[in-house]
Structures are given as structure tokens and as C-alpha cells.
Amino acid sequence: MPNTSVEQILSRPALSKDELAYFLTTRNKQEKHEIFLRADKVKRQYLGNQVFLRGLIELSNICRKDCYYCGIRRSNEGIDRYTIDRDEAVDLAMYAWKKGFGSVVIQSGERTDKAFVDMVTDILQGIKQKTGNELGITLSCGEQSRETYRKWFEAGAHRYLLRIETSSEELYHKLHPSDDIHSFKSRMECLESLKKSGYQVGTGVMIGLPFQTAEDLAGDLLFFRNQNIDMIGMGPYVSHPETPFAKFSKFILPESERLDLSLRMIALARVLLKDVNIASGTALQALDRNGRIKGILSGANVFMPNLTPEDCARKYLLYKDKPVMTDRAEQTIKNLEDSLATFGQVIGYGKWGDPKHYFKRIMNN
Ligand code: 5AD
Question: How many Å apart are CA 31 and CA 350, to the nearest integer?
Fold first, then answer.
């Protein structure tokens, strides 16, 4: 970019779609270096040096949706479906609490039946009661009615993550069947409904999808800002052989480039959005065994150790080579702690680590 230094451009309060697309793709090493430097600076300035832990519980791989890219899609008959029962889910959350994780994320395939809605409510109440309201809870259980969102909020969940998957409506239609339960419009309405219900709201996208352009991804970053969202969870697309999208796997970027693109997305999200929470997701780990730590060092501030019991985690295969991690092994956290220390960062044990952006958003509303 002639005449203006990269640092100057990245320090502006706003960046254009073209500028973002440029930074997502530049092959100039110095420019790339400046992106990560700026992300690190912004992260320290706005959030300090703490990284927050969320114990991840993959509650069920039963899903009513049929997304073309996802391994647990309804039509995939090759997988064993499971649901962790109420008591086991509460026990996993108790484990997180005792380890000082601060929060848990309960993630699940999308189910809207009463039995499921009631079970989640019961789990939330159980966790709140057994931890004396000390453990923060994020839900990631897909599109639900406003009533269900309210019910879960009242039962104790205070954050909700619902990925938009892509903010390009055109690409969204390529990724999903065209029917009532896969509509872009409903997804947008759910994000709105979550905000109205009082949640700290997160969204995110997949990176390196077939047909996706740098402009689409730049548009996603602007979407996060325009939607005033509090949290971001995004990661690389990884093909799954038992999905309709597997046929496009030869058209996607090689793994190392998809990883690089994902890390740039994290860094640019930090530069643009500043005070939001950004998670370093599991899919990064599928492309690189230090993927999640690289995410943290690129601007993310939330790390999600997977607490799902191994037999279930093996069945929660959203994509190929999803690492079956049971981070209950002390070693994962120890490794994270050691790597963070090298970069002057620490784990915020026992803290909820709510996104600062949320408090600003509700003050201004
Ligand atoms: N690659 C990467 N992420 C995926 N997800 C689903 N399938 C894949 C895939 N093949 C992500 C989606 C979804 C979340 C539960 O998992 O973003 O929202």
C-alpha cells in the first residue's frame, strides 16, 4: 500500500472492506508481521494480559439440521448419536469449576424438542446451584425460539454463541439446504433475539470455505462490527468425507494457508473490534498441533479446554481429523501456561472473563 504505513492504516478507527481484504491476502512479510504486532498491541491495551478458560462440553451430536459441510448433519447415518445425561453434564461443569476455569461452554447439535430444552434448563439450574452461582455459562445450541432463549437465560446461561457461518447471504445458501430451518433470515433474527434476551452474544464464521473469497471474509469482519457483537468464535473450515461438501475439497486452500488465513482473521478481528472476546477454537488444532496457542498469540483471549468424555468426543466429529482432545489431562493447561508465560500472558483463573464490549453495548442502549 503506497504512501501510508501499514501501522497507520491499522491504527485508524475504521478499515474498509478493500483494506481488510488486502491484509487477509498480502504476501509481503513485513506487512503481515505488522498485522500481528498491531493485534498484540490492541489486545494488551484493551484487555491486559489475561486469557480466560471455558471448559467445553459437547452435550449431544443429535442434530435436526443438514448443513452441507458438517459431519454431524442429520443425513449422516454413519455416526453413533449420543447425549450426555444431565448428571454427567453437571459433573463435568463441577470439574471445570474446581479447576478454576471460570466458565463452561455447553455446545450441542441443534435440537428444539421439549425434552432437550428441559434438559438444558435443568443442567443450567444444576450448575448454578452446585457452584453457588460461581461458574459462568455460555450456550451454543443453535437456533431456538425466543421463549427458549429466555428460559435458558433465566436458568443461568449468560452468554450465547451462534455462528452466522458466513455473512454473505449468497454463500450461506450454497452451504445449506433451502428450507425453513436453514434460513439466513432466521439466523439473523436469532442473533437479534439473543441480544434482546440479555445475553452476551457471540457469532463467527468458517474460514477457507469452498467458494469463499477474501472479500467475503472482509465482509464478515465488518459484519461483526456492524452487528455490535460481544464475542467471536471462528475457525478454519475442515472438510469431512461424509458430507456433500467433501467433493469440493480439492478446491480449498492447502492446510498451512487456511491456518494462516484463520490467524489473520483473528488478528484483524482484534484490530477492528478491540474489546470483544475472541476464542481460539478447536478447528485450529486440526490443522496444527499448536493451533490453539497460535490463535491466542494472534489476538484471541479465550481458550476452551475440551472436557467431553473421550467416547463422546470421538462421535462429535464436525470435520475430519478433529482432534479427540480430552483436556482434562493437566498437561494441556500446563503447556498453555508455559507458552503464555513466554509472551507475558497469564491464565485468569476463577474469573468469568466477560467481554468488555458487552458492558459498553448495554450502557449505550
Ligand atoms: N469445518 C469447520 N467447522 C465446522 N463446523 C461444522 N462443520 C465444520 C467443518 N467441516 C462448525 C460450524 C458450526 C460449529 C458447531 O462447527 O461453524 O457452527
Answer: 38
